[in-house]
Write a structure and sequence with these properties.
The chain has about 200 residues and is an alpha+beta fold. Helix content is about 40%, strand content about 25%.
Length: about 200
C-alpha cells in the first residue's frame, strides 16, 4: 500500500471520535468510523497507521525469579525421595538432573514431531508493528493484514482462516460450490459466501 496521507493522519490522531473507534470504547463512534472506512477504502493504510499509533505497542513481560526456580527445583528433588524401611534415601542431584533431562528430551522430541507435522501443511502470513500486507489467497480472496497481525490456513483449505489481530477481507464468491469462507479468532467464528468485511 501507499504511504499514509500525512494531513489525514494528523487529523485522525487529533480526533477524539477516531480515538474512541481505535480503542473500541463507544458504539456510535465504532459504527461511524466503520462506515467511513467502507466508503473510503483508499485511506485504509492511513486509518490503520493512525490506529496503530494511538494504541501503541504493549508487551507482556513474563519472568521467573531465582527464588521461584530454586523452590521449584527443590520441590522436584523432594518428590523424587524414596522411603525404604524408615530411612529416606535422596537420589543424588546428578541422577535427578539426568532423569529430568531425559524427560525433557522426550517431551521436546514429541513436540517437534507433532508441531513439525502440523506446520508442514499450514501457511502463515504475519505482519510486524506498523506494517500492512496485501495478500491474495489461492481461492482469489484478497486480504489486507493490519500491523502486528497473523493469519494461517491449511494448504488444502484456504477458505478456513485463523486470525490473530486485524484484517480486511474481500471474499471471492464461488457460485459453483457455494463454499463458505470461515474466519476464526480467539472469541468468534465468522462464515460468509462472498462479501467484504473487517475483523
Amino acid at each position: 500500500m501507499d504511504n499514509p496521507d500525512q494531513s489525514l493522519l494528523d487529523s485522525l490522531l487529533n480526533d477524539p471520535s477516531f480515538a474512541s473507534w481505535a480503542k473500541n470504547t463507544h458504539k456510535e463512534d465504532v459504527a461511524l468510523w466503520n462506515q467511513w472506512i467502507q466508503d473510503h477504502p483508499e485511506h485504509l493504510n492511513t486509518v490503520y497507521t493512525a490506529k496503530a499509533i494511538l494504541l501503541g505497542i504493549q508487551f507482556k513481560e513474563n519472568t521467573v525469579g531465582d527464588d521461584e526456580l530454586e523452590h521449584t527445583f527443590g520441590h522436584i528433588l523432594e518428590s523424587l525421595q524414596i522411603e525404604n524401611g524408615g530411612e529416606r534415601l535422596v537420589k543424588t542431584r546428578r541422577h535427578s538432573l539426568m532423569l529430568i533431562g531425559s524427560l525433557l528430551i522426550c517431551v521436546l522430541l514429541a513436540s517437534f514431531y507433532y508441531f513439525g507435522k502440523e506446520k508442514s501443511s499450514l501457511i502463515h502470513h504475519k505482519t510486524e508493528y506498523g506494517m500492512i500486507m496485501d495478500l491474495t489467497l489461492p481461492d482469489g480472496t484478497s486480504v489486507t493484514l493490519n500491523g502486528n497481525s497473523r493469519i494461517s490456513y491449511d494448504k488444502g483449505n484456504p477458505r478456513d482462516i485463523s486470525l490473530e489481530g486485524e484484517a480486511y477481507f474481500n471474499v471471492k464468491k464461488i457460485p459453483s460450490t457455494n463454499a463458505k469462507f470461515w474466519v476464526t479468532t480467539n472469541d468468534l467464528r465468522i462464515a460468509v459466501y462472498g462479501t467484504q468485511f473487517h475483523v
